[in-house]
C-alpha cells in the first residue's frame, strides 16, 4: 500500500468524505469505525471507483487501549501510515450536572484520549521518515465555552490547543498537523449528540465541502482550518470583544432545544 491515510470515523459524515477525497487522489486507505457494514460498503465503492487499496479495521475507540490495538494491527499488516486523520468524535447535549457521567467519560475517551494516543503512536514514524501529515477534526466549538455541551466544547478546545502545540514541536521534521474546525455540519452528529431540533443545524453546511476544505488545508500544512467563513469572522473579530457573559448566554440560546 502507498500514501496510506488512516481515517477514524470513516463510516459516515466528514470522515467518509475525507476518505473519498483521499481515494480520488489515488492514495490508499485504512478505514476505522465501529460499523463494519458501512466501512465495507465504502471500501468496495472506493476500490471500484478509484483503483486504490482499502483496508477495513473495525474498532471501538471509546474502549481503553483501543489505540494500542489499532496500532498493533497496522504494524502486523506491515502498513506505513503517511496521513493520519483523527476524525472520530461525538457530542452530547444537556446540562453537565444532569448528564450521565459515563457518557461524558466516553466522550473524553474518544475525542481526547484516542486522538492523543493515536498521534503519539503514529507520529514517531513520521518524524523518523521526515514526512507525514495529521489532520485532527476539532470544531469551532474549540474556541469558546459551550453551555449545554460543556464537555464537548472543552474536548474540542483540547484538540485545537494540542494540535498547534505538537505542530510547532515537529515543524522542522517534515511533518505537519492541522486542526479542522467546522461549524455545524449536516451529518449523523446531530442525532448522536441528542440535538435533533436544535436551531444550530438549520444552516448547517455539507460534510463534503467541510472535508474538502480540511483536506486542502492539511495538504498545504496549515495549522487551523475554520471551514465556515462567517463563523471565522465572528470568532476572530466579534466574539473576543463582546462581554463574556453575553457570549455564553448567546451560545446557550443557540444550542437549547425548544
Ligand atoms: N457535524 C457537526 O456539526 C460537526 C461540527 C464540528 C466538528 N465536528 C466533528 O467532526 C467529526 C466527525 O463527525 P461527523 O459530523 O462526521 O459526525 P458523524 O456522521 O456522526 O460521524 C462520526 C464518526 O465517528 C465514528 N465513531 C463514533 N464513535 C466511535 C467509536 N466509539 N469508535 C470509533 N469510531 C466512532 C462514527 O462511526 P461508528 O458509529 O460506525 O463507530 C462515525 O464514523 C467529529 O469529531 C465531530 O466532533 C462535527
Give a quick set of tags describing it.
258 residues, binds NADP nicotinamide-adenine-dinucleotide phosphate, 9 helices, globular, 9 strands, two-stranded parallel ribbon, 7-stranded parallel sheet, Rossmann fold, alpha/beta
Describe this structure in words.
- The protein starts with a strand and ends with a helix.
- With 258 residues, it is of the alpha/beta class.
- It has a 7-stranded parallel β-sheet, sandwiched between helices. A two-stranded parallel sheet has the order 7-8.
- The protein has one domain: Rossmann fold.
- The protein is built from 9 helices and 9 strands.
- It has helices spanning 13-24, 36-50, 66-76, 101-129, 150-169, 189-192, 207-220, 229-238, 244-255, and strands at 4-8, 29-32, 54-56, 81-86, 132-137, 175-181, 185-186, 205-206, 224-226.
- The model has no long low-confidence stretch (mean pLDDT 96).
- The protein binds NADP nicotinamide-adenine-dinucleotide phosphate.
- NADP nicotinamide-adenine-dinucleotide phosphate is lined by residues 8-15, 33-35, 38, 59-62, 87-90, 110, 137, 139, 182, 184-185, 187-189, 192, 207.
Amino acid at each position: 500500500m502507498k500514501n496510506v491515510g488512516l481515517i477514524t470515523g470513516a463510516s459516515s459524515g466528514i470522515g467518509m468524505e475525507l476518505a473519498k477525497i483521499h481515494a480520488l487522489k489515488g492514495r490508499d486507505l485504512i478505514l476505522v469505525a465501529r460499523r463494519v457494514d458501512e466501512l465495507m460498503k465504502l471500501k468496495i465503492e472506493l476500490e471500484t471507483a478509484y483503483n486504490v487499496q482499502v483496508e477495513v479495521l473495525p474498532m471501538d475507540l471509546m474502549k481503553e487501549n483501543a489505540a494500542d490495538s489499532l496500532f498493533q494491527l497496522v504494524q502486523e499488516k506491515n502498513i506505513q501510515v503517511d496521513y493520519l486523520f483523527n476524525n472520530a468524535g461525538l457530542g452530547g447535549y444537556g446540562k453537565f450536572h444532569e448528564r450521565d457521567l459515563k457518557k461524558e467519560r466516553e466522550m473524553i475517551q474518544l475525542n481526547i484520549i484516542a486522538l492523543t494516543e493515536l498521534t503519539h503512536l503514529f507520529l514517531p514514524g513520521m518524524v523518523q521518515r521526515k514526512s507525514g501529515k495529521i489532520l485532527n477534526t476539532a470544531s469551532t466549538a474549540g474556541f469558546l465555552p459551550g453551555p449545554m455541551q460543556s464537555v464537548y466544547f472543552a474536548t474540542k478546545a483540547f484538540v485545537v490547543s494540542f494540535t498547534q502545540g505538537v505542530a510547532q514541536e515537529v515543524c522542522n521534521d517534515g511533518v505537519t498537523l492541522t486542526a479542522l474546525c467546522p461549524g455545524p455540519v449536516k451529518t449523523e452528529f446531530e442525532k448522536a449528540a441528542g440535538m435533533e431540533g436544535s436551531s444550530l443545524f438549520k444552516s448547517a453546511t455539507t460534510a463534503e465541502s467541510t472535508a474538502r476544505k480540511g483536506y486542502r488545508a492539511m495538504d498545504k500544512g496549515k495549522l487551523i482550518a475554520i471551514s465556515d467563513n462567517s463563523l471565522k469572522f465572528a470568532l476572530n473579530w466579534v466574539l473576543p470583544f463582546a462581554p463574556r457573559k453575553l457570549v455564553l448566554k448567546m451560545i446557550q440560546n443557540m444550542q437549547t432545544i425548544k
